[in-house]
Amino acid sequence: MPRRRRPVAQHARLRSPHPLGQLATLLAVAAVVAVVSVIGVVSYTAYDLTAEFVDEAVVVENQPPVPPDLGQLEGGVNMMVVGIDACEENLIALFGERCEGPDSEGRLNDVNILVHISDAPRKVTVVSFPRDLVFEAPACDTSDGGRFDGGYLQINELYTYGGLSCVITAISDMSGQQIQFGAMVTFGGVIEITNAIGGVEICLASAMRDENTGIDWEAGPRTIQGVEALQFLRTRYGVGGSDLARVSNQQQYMSRLARKLVSEEVLSNPATLFRLASTGLRNVTPTQSLTNPLTLVQVAQAVKDVPFEDIVFVQYPTVTASSDANRVAPNWEAAQVLWDALAANQAIEVTGDVAVNGGTVVADPTPAPEESPGETPPVEEVEPGTVDPTTGAVALPPSISGSSAAQQTCSAGVVN
Q1: Could you say which of 58, 110, 331, 377 would form a disulfide bridge with 317 (CB–CB 3.0 to 4.6 Å)?
Q2: Backbone angles phi, psi at 196, to 5 degrees
Q3: pTM as predicted
């Protein structure tokens, strides 16, 4: 049924981000930007680090060809970013039973993000896939040179079977998108990246308590780094216990990380930039397609002029899984509207809520101008999947939640 149109520009317009800050809208792409700065500014100094970065690159089966020049790209490119919840030695004490004994779960594929960089006019769309998503995964090559036959499984099992390549293969199959690039970063790596820039300021709309991650924080702004960054990214009970709410909470972190990276505090400090660059090189595992220095520079150039309003974070639409009421399955129809819009290089307009299950809320939206009685304009109805005549953007189905980087959100903060 038609949805009431929500104006796109409800919040203050921000200046366009710096070329190196754009890709930092993701957890791991911040590190890719760091790689660009190292190669472009201090390549000789960082030779040993970049060599290790290339040596650890992942081979992806059926890898789509990488465009020779992203500046002239037709059709856009996609990058898969995978965040791994690993039992790293210095973090084992924080994970408790999950990392203890012979039955420990080891590495879990906790965060899956597809980043779409459109053809000109450039736009960036960040699609987060819930870790509780179940679907029919295709066969894929495994990390040890074997073959996984595929099957009905939960998305966070994929990395265990076949590593980054297997995740890329499955998401490409599910979405119908060619994925040219990929990168993996552990939560420990995210901590290091956060520390390198002096922390990220997040926002809590109310107090947040979570015994599982050790969070006991009061409402208000809070600068997090180190262990606190890990606690915030892992919490789900701190936002009500839903994995879908946690995804929205992680998107708040990504958006605010982008703001920090384009701030003068980072960009005007060469020491901070170099620290960020070297940290990123040490903590990101790329696909082979992402190791060419020229490619990295081209990726940064492709998004250098994208304003925050055209960087949109959305959560992949889902329905309750028929096999398990505690899991979710793809909402194919709603997702197709998103994929079609990206294929046509159309701007998208989120008509759904900012977050699923109340994970986040909009922080202090700019109030609309007061209108005299009797002068309230009629609100147009916009059918999902059609173009909003006012904004020129495709109205996404309400089942797709999300926000733009121009919107500031806060964690709802449910006490547990």
Answers
A1: 331
A2: -60, -25
A3: 0.78
Element (H, E) at 68: none
Tally the residues of the chain: 416
Q: pLDDT digit string (tens) for 278-326? A: 777 777 888 888 777 667 667 766 776 788 888 888 999 999 999 999 9
| pLDDT value for 71 | 57
Three-state SS letters, the chain: CCEECCCCCCCCCCCCCCHHHHHHHCCCHHHHHHHHHHHHHCCCCCHHHHHHHHHCCECCCCCCCCCCCHHHCCCCEEEEEEEEECCCHHHHHHHHHHHCCCCCCCCEEEEEEEEEECCCCCCEEEEEECCCEEEEECCEECCCCCEECCEEEEHHHHHHHHHHHHHHHHHHHHHCCCCCEEEEEEHHHHHHHHHHCCCEEEEECCCEEECCCCEEECCEEEEECCHHHHHHHHCCHHHCCCHHHHHHHHHHHHHHHHHHHCCHHHHCCHHHHHHHHHHHHHHEEEEHHHCCHHHHHHHHHHCCCCCHHHEEEEECCEEEECCEEEEEEECHHHHHHHHHHHHCCCCEECCCCCCHHHCEEECCCCCCCCCCCCCCCCCCEECCCCECCCCCCEECCCCCCEEECCCCEEECCCCC
Q: Quick one: pLDDT at residue 357?
A: 66
Which helix (H) or strand (E) segment is 345 a member of? Answer: none
